[in-house]
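Usage

Read records sequentially. Each one opens with the input sequence:
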Amino acid sequence: MNGDFMEKKAEELIKKCETLDDTTVMGSCQVLLDMMKEKDVELEDDTKQTYLKMTNNLTPKDLSKVLVMALKVRESGEIKDVELKNAASRIIRAIEMS
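and closes with the structure output:
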């Protein structure tokens, strides 16, 4: 898949998140955030404080931010943790299917 397609897909998912209020997706987001906190994962362009704050107080409006993090985790060549990548993929699939 080329970069333009991936960017367009990401934009579609982010727009979908803005109207989504699904407890299943929220639960998946919480799992990813907790895992990132536990494994002390840092992403480029994201401050650790951002997701630590969301971990403690996740709201539906945070879904698009978590989706962006999930996309970064899944596509990152630096993150090798399979469990973390699987958690990110679950969020992306849940949003695609909602």
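Summary fields computed downstream for this record:
- The radius of gyration is 12 Å.
- Residues 3-97 form one domain.
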